[in-house]
Amino acid sequence: MAQITLKNLAHSYYPNPQSEQDYALKEMDHVWLDGGAYALLGSSGCGKTTLLNIISGLLRPSHGRVLFNDRDVTDAATAERNIAQVFQFPVVYDTMSVRDNLAFPLRNRGMDAAYIKARVDQIAQMIGMESMLQRKAQGLTADAKQKISLGRGMVREDVNAILFDEPLTVIDPHMKWELRTQLKQLHREFGHTMIYVTHDQTEALTFADKVVVMYDGRVVQMGTPEELFETPAHTFVGYFIGSPGMNFLDADVQGNRALLPGGESVDLGAEYAPASGKVQIGIRPEHAVLTDGAGLPLTINRIEDAGRHRILRGEVMGSPLNIVLPEGQPVGENARVAFTPAKINVYADDWRVAPLGRAA
Amino acid sequence: MDKTQNNKAWFLVLPVLVLVAFSAVIPLMTVVNYAFNDTFGNNQFFWAGLEWFDEMIHSSRLHEALGRQILFSAIILAIEVPLGIFVALNMPKKGFWSSFVLVVMSLPLLIPFNVVGTIWQIFGRTDIGLLGHTLAALGIDYNYTADVLDAWITVVVMDVWHWTSLVALLCYAGLQSIPQAYYQAAKIDQASRWAVFRYIELPKMSGVLLIAVLLRFMDSFMIYTEPFVVTGGGPGNATTFLSIDLVKMAVGQFDLGPAAAFSLMYFLVILLVSWVFYTVMTNMDRSASDIPEEL
Question: Which residues form the domain of B223?
Fold first, then answer.
């Protein structure tokens, strides 16, 4: 088990990267603590898999170093790093039985036969495939194959980290929950460092202690699910996390007030230093409240029923605004909207600005 | 579901039937006719029954040719298949060199059969051929026209030169279709190079490999042109394979009856072997298609 440090890490698939555009991964400095459960979250093509492959050693970064504990492994081969990785699509050895598939990583490392048998039985029980151990892997469903892949990833006890590259894409929703819960339990039990790549926020938020949000080759925020929700460090995190995502309104921030284009102003609940560039305020749909008198004028476009709550789609000062309405709340003709001051975040050029006298 | 039955559609197949009748069925029937009759010219035929078949089945000449044929096919399969796999594994996977190698590999396949024969016929000559002359200069007594072993070696090497590319190209196509994740997973599982070949590459190649074996078996079993040009079936009858023997019998000696019976049996043997291959292949396909292909 190891703490993983990324030092000035960057990667470009071009031999001579000229501009920042040429980098699949922009320079980053991060420490992934030993025994942490991390989720790498981001939309497709943001560099998640590139980062994962750099950590597992399948890809050599063009810039910077990778450290496991204090050891520099940048140039170490995958096998040397003692990492397990589960891929997006099931990789099974078709001609082997399920048992041999699970035993394969252990056998290749010359483990004792009795130990292998015990360990494989244990893993088979975990993934619910005890009854299929003698079957050939060929001809199994995609679900079953992916469970074998997961099992093969977890069969070694001494790994430095287990990496998952969107492993549940091919699994059906019911099974997804079950497997995710098992992974979580496994993490608590053995304390492996786990890195889980996904573009599904629910998956990320339920699996991980810390979620790493990536956008355009950059890690934009690394934090607990709560931090991502309450104080998104970047506008991308704001609208990627949450459903619907955060509302953003162009504003001019002066002291503790934000002036909106229509002449209205909003109380920010804290003092801000004058910001430059494109300044916006961000408010979660959950923290926007309908009122009868106070607040901003609101145009209601439509109301969607999402089951446990309703989502109001509207406009404020010409900008779209979503509000999550608690169950049973009536919507008046001339409703206005107010924001909970403490829940408002201020962004300059897409990055969050911390208020004065209050740390991020 | 109700489908409209319209048997008039069969008329559309008629032109093809006529064409096939002229090009295949009628000639084949002529052969059948010769196989069951004896003729002394003048287009007069006398019923011979199974006499020719009986004669051919018990002919030691045919037995020997069949023996040589099986040996030849076995040798070239034993060389070309492993060699083809080996070459495919070592071909560059992408970039300029991959295209370059592909073109070079295809060259032998594009050369007409009798030209291949001529090339090797000259190449092996001790007076003007590069290979023959070099061997002679090295003090090796090499003469494919006089020595049985030399003749066999020449014919086998020629076939390997001509056709290994086909096996290699098919295997290469099979290898290229393996998703990168398999190799990555193998690295993570610390699989040895041999294990990667045995458990990933070979299973994924098995489909194309079977096609390669089938094609090479059938082609080599029917081989005629190249050995005929190089050795003419000699020295003696040492490289007289089934086709060469058949042509000698039919065109050389004009023994049309026995030759016709011979060709029908030859045809049936190839048909039988092809059927076996076809059955094996479709069975493998069926067991493979049980798996929903996820990539």
Answer: 59-289
